[in-house]
From TrEMBL:
<feature type="transmembrane region" description="Helical">
    <location>
        <begin position="80"/>
        <end position="97"/>
    </location>
</feature>
<keyword id="KW-0472">Membrane</keyword>
<dbReference type="Pfam" id="PF03208">
    <property type="entry name" value="PRA1"/>
</dbReference>
<protein>
    <recommendedName>
        <fullName>PRA1 family protein</fullName>
    </recommendedName>
</protein>
<comment type="function">
    <text>May be involved in both secretory and endocytic intracellular trafficking in the endosomal/prevacuolar compartments.</text>
</comment>
<keyword id="KW-0813">Transport</keyword>
<feature type="region of interest" description="Disordered">
    <location>
        <begin position="1"/>
        <end position="22"/>
    </location>
</feature>
<feature type="compositionally biased region" description="Polar residues">
    <location>
        <begin position="8"/>
        <end position="22"/>
    </location>
</feature>
<dbReference type="GO" id="GO:0016020">
    <property type="term" value="C:membrane"/>
</dbReference>
<dbReference type="InterPro" id="IPR004895">
    <property type="entry name" value="Prenylated_rab_accept_PRA1"/>
</dbReference>
<dbReference type="GO" id="GO:0016192">
    <property type="term" value="P:vesicle-mediated transport"/>
</dbReference>
<keyword id="KW-0812">Transmembrane</keyword>
<dbReference type="GO" id="GO:0005783">
    <property type="term" value="C:endoplasmic reticulum"/>
</dbReference>
<dbReference type="GO" id="GO:0005794">
    <property type="term" value="C:Golgi apparatus"/>
</dbReference>
<comment type="similarity">
    <text>Belongs to the PRA1 family.</text>
</comment>
<keyword id="KW-1133">Transmembrane helix</keyword>
<feature type="transmembrane region" description="Helical">
    <location>
        <begin position="103"/>
        <end position="136"/>
    </location>
</feature>
Length: 177
């Protein structure tokens, strides 16, 4: 019975005069460019965040007269408040947690819940509840004149704020390469 061949773990160039450039040093500029684009995208996204007082203004909430009006409100409110819907703050006992603290808390809770419960049904239920909350807010909030400055914006998708800074950084990256 022959033993299986062993796989090499690493190769050393002890006899070579000049070491060949490693793959990690070649990928470093590309990684820096990617992280720079990601950072710019996140900053651009946070800059489009609306004030929380505007999102939670109770005087702007009213029952829509018809399903068509509710749908129209959803189509106007979701693009306008998309960043706020994506980064809801966590408030416990009157203390507002930062976005980083909220993210860490959500990751920890997610890991615990994933290991304790049924993952598939939980994720689908969570997505449906979140979608229902966003639709309910969008339907009940009267748009008024909040959208006058947003009429010229071609990007109206829920996650379109991620593409703005990244697409602006792409041409500058191409000129350096």
């Amino acid at each position: 019975m022959a033993s299986p061949p062993t796989l090499p773990i690493s190769q050393s160039n002890q006899g070579a005069a000049a070491p060949a450039p490693s793959q990690s040093t070649i990928a470093t500029p590309a990684l820096r460019a990617f992280l720079s684009r990601l950072s710019n995208s996140v900053r651009h996204g946070f800059s489009q965040r609306r004030p929380w007082s505007e999102l939670l203004d109770r005087s702007s909430l009213s029952r829509p007269d018809s399903l068509t009006e509710a749908y129209s409100r959803i189509r106007k409110n979701v693009p306008y408040f998309r960043v706020n819907y994506a980064i809801l703050p966590l408030v416990i006992l009157g203390r507002t947690f930062s976005d980083t603290e909220t993210l860490i808390g959500l990751v920890l809770v997610t890991v615990i819940v994933v290991f304790v419960s049924s993952v598939g049904s939980l994720l689908i239920s969570t997505l449906l509840v979140g979608f229902a909350i966003v639709c309910a807010h969008g339907a009940f909030r009267v748009p008024e004149d909040l959208f006058l400055d947003d009429q010229d914006s071609p990007n109206t998708g829920f996650l379109s704020f991620l593409g703005g800074a990244a697409s602006a950084a792409a041409p500058s990256l191409a000129t350096r390469v």
